[in-house]
């Protein structure tokens, strides 16, 4: 739901290639075990995004 | 005057112009005035500043709020050129960190940006401070507020349904600009309370939630009126109850008359409202009370807490007088994570 928004903001700040990892909306008002499931589901993607070479950006 | 904006060739038909503007996401759904070179130049000139002067980059998308870009949006909204100093001052004000502009622009909350004008500019620009001031019928109120929304949308990039993600929106997002009714009160107006001179003209910007009208035509003393106002501040689900911040109370002139007669003044009024406007903890959903505790832990840490103040301190009740006849006042909750900002309008370029 907010991915396109995040992408536009990253582009506006000069980081069009910023790696983004998404989880389903909403993130508030949900049980703790659902939060845990979301976190587990994106763990690999977050680790990958943090360890990949940064994208060559357009400044 | 050299203007840098891209020129667009549009048919003269008002409906075709409206379609053109809406297709590009620049409008609010209502007809706009063509921002011709001549109109924009007149706006820039009335600002007393060069067209390429930047007042800052507005989130989300950090467009550059140059005088020219402000002027284009002002022209499109139907402003008179002499409104420009108000708009430029309002733009300057929202960059104060206490306003929390990135949060206000990005939230799912129902937030409008209210502009309150103080001092001689109200008369000079014919800004309505009295009956129906939040409503229709006054060009300055309607178009200054509309231009400000265009600036946030078109320069800042807060496009409804896209980068403006407000769940419900807010009627005040079409336009929200009023004057303080300084003549209806013996107390110092808001800009004087905040350190400016009465002869100064000034702008206050406030990130407001929907308004709550207080109807008390029955009380015969000031304390009764204040009790009605305090009880209208008590909402366990409001941003203020959850996050603190600032809450606005607009006193109607007839309520002011009663308060003055009974010896009340703004410091006493604020102190009364702070105490009587506290929300009993039993009104909160338990999880929401924990959320409030998490955000306002210093204030709400006590285990035996019985009530929650809707602002963190008495000075965070933003109090001023406005409106016309009638036994009414307004409570206006805010975004919570925000405080209003007051700035003097700089007319020094007029000599």
Query: Rg of chain A to the nearest angstrom?
Result: 14 Å
Task: Tell me which oligomeric state these chains represent.
Answer: heterodimer
Overall form of chain B: globular
N-to-C SSE string of chain A, H for helix and E for strand: HH
The separation of the N and C termini of chain A measures: 26 Å
According to DSSP, the number of beta strands of chain B is: 12
| Percent in helix of chain B | 25-40%
DSSP summary: helix tally of chain A = 2
Domain module count of chain B: 2
**Given the C-alpha coordinates, what overall shape of chain A results?**
flat
Key features of this structure:
heterodimer; A: 51% helix; B: 351 residues; alpha+beta; 4-stranded mixed beta sheet; 14 helices
Descriptive overview:
The complex is a heterodimer of chains A (59) and B (351). Chain A is mainly α. Chain A is built from 2 helices and no strands. In chain A, 51% of the residues lie in helices and 0% in strands. Chain A starts with a helix and ends in an 8-residue tail after the last helix. By secondary structure, chain B is of the alpha+beta class. Chain B folds into 2 domains: 9-180 and 187-207, no CATH class; 210-333, no CATH class. In chain B, helix 2 (37-47) crosses helix 3 and helix 3 (67-77) crosses helix 7. Classes of the chains: A mainly alpha (59), B alpha+beta (351).
